[in-house]
Amino acid sequence: MRWIPESQPKMPAAPNEGNLAILDKLWIGPEKLNMRRAAIVVFFVVAALLFIRQPAAIFQAGFYGEDGKIFFKQQYEMGFRDSVITPYAGYLPTAPRIVAWACSVLPLEYLPFAYAMISLLAAAGVLAFFCLPNFRHVIKSDSLRITLVMVFTLMPNAEPLMKAAFLGWYLLFFLALVTLMELPQRLPAFWLLLLPAVLTAWTTPVAIVCLPLTVLRAWMTKDVRERAWWSVLTLALITYPLMAERPPGLMAMLLHDSDWKLALVRCIGYRVFCFFFFGQTAMYPFPSEGWNVILGISLVLAVICVAIAIRLARQHSRSGLSRWSSIILLYLILGLPAMFVLRTQWLRYFLPWDEACWEFNGRYFFCSTLLMGVFWGVAYERLWFEWFTNKISRRQWATVLMIAWLSLHIASFRLDSWNIHTPWSHFSEQIRAAQVRADQSGKRELVYVATRAAGFDFDLVVKPKAPKPADQSSAR
Fold first, then answer.
1. Mean pLDDT, residues 356-370
2. Cys-Cys crosslink for 316: which of 141, 323, 408, 438, Cβ 3.0 to 4.6 Å?
3. CA–CA separation, 121 vs 126, rounded Å?
């Protein structure tokens, strides 16, 4: 299946536009840009914005949660071969294992910094990925896609940022975008793209939500090479859950519990729809409100999105992926967070109305929040672009609405502080000293390491290094 570019809508000229013409070129212009250069610029701008959201992760580098207790500790004690096949939380987190292995060649002093920096660059790469011309069949305007990429950096539920352990959530968004894109035509890029896609499939069990879409893409295409590409990715998605020692916890649905439907509606309606439109600050829960008001608002927003998705699909003049992109986006928006609420330990958060449903686990809704941005970008370009751009006054109102909406999210732009009471250099020195003692005594040493997240401090086992062959022969 190939996408044939359609004729671009022409923006009607308006007299005395002034600075609004600049605004049109920035985020609502239909013209095509030189995306080779633009993508590089977008990547660095996005990386800078993400860095501003959590600068202490770089300037006060220290392990956060599972980065230290699971991935650094197990890589240090077990090595890559044993750690990469060790499940955590019921599945194999391959991408964080690779990060831990790649960073293990660095001096101890730089490891938390390297974890955070790799996570930052990977996040910037995933967000900037959407500006590539391979998504022109979804949103034609290059400038509009670039604008959406910038909007991605402001969105709530950004808990995965700067954490190697949560890198899978950025990769999940990448995989969701891959299911929508036109594959590259050049062979190196065509096959290289498969590597991070398979890595995502082998990092998080939530990726199973993308399985129907990869099967659909393999069935729709008439190109043998593309069919092989999608078939390999489908195989990776199918085989990954079977490799874990026990069924992945994310896939354990609570269909036997009569309250799961109610919790599912509240969960998606509140953390996806309400957070996207009103921001997490405006939607902070007050116990006196209860769920009635929020549930009503979220259902209205959901119905509006469904109606728009159906209208976009029905009015599109072409068949194929471009026509059904809005339906695919809506499926992903609803399906990805459903894997969160259908777990025993989280179902209870969305039955009562308290801070627990607001404060924790934003990463489970992160992909849906970003995909909501893509969805409304599609709706704007296909339904309202010409209406907004044929009069200056309408463009002014569009600008005001855009600024007002962004202001709801700017209040939560900076993430929680990354304060480390004891600098990592203190622990790295203790680990080095313990290694010297272990080598001299031939016995293991324990080093206590504190991390940023409560409950994730750990004892690192420092083993004596194996003697060199020359030392073994001299000992004999």
1. 84
2. 323
3. 9
- Counting Cβ atoms within 10 Å, is residue 135 exposed (0-12), middle (13-18) or buried (19+)? buried
Q: Measure the CA–CA gap between 225 and 57, rounded to whole angstroms.
A: 42
Which residues fall within 8 angstroms of residue 148, CB to CB, at 6 or more apart? 130, 139, 373, 374, 377
Residue 27 — very low, low, confident or very high, per pLDDT cuts 50/70/90? very low
Ramachandran angles phi, psi of 88, nearest 5°: -135, 130
User: Tens digit of pLDDT for each residue in 287-307?
Assistant: 666 788 888 999 999 999 999
What are residue 446's DSSP bridge partners?
461
Distance CA 157, CA 154 (A): 10
Tokens at residue 284, please? Answer: 């902070």
**Tokens matching residue 403:** 């600024």
- Among residues 105, 107, 227, 113, the alpha carbon closest in space to that of 164 is found at 113
Q: In the prediction, which pLDDT does 226 show?
A: 95
DSSP state of 271: I
CA angle 412, 418, 206 (to 5 degrees): 70
The whole-angstrom separation of Cα 282 and Cα 252 is 32
| Single-letter residue type at 72 | F
Length of the chain: 476
Overall pTM surpassing 0.70 (yes/no):
yes
DSSP 13: P
Kindly tell me the burial class for residue 164, based on how many C-beta atoms sit within 10 Å of its own C-beta (0-12, 13-18, 19 or more). Answer: buried
DSSP 472: H
φ, ψ of residue 458 in degrees (nearest 5): -150, 160
Which amino acid belongs to residue 335? G
pLDDT in tens, 32-79: 777 778 899 999 999 999 999 999 899 888 999 899 999 999 999 999
Long-range interactions of 378-386: CB distance < 8 A, separation 24+: 378/138, 378/139, 378/312, 378/325, 378/326, 378/329, 379/308, 379/312, 379/326, 380/144, 381/139, 381/140, 381/141, 381/144, 382/312, 382/315, 382/316, 383/308, 383/311, 383/312, 385/9, 385/28, 385/30, 386/9
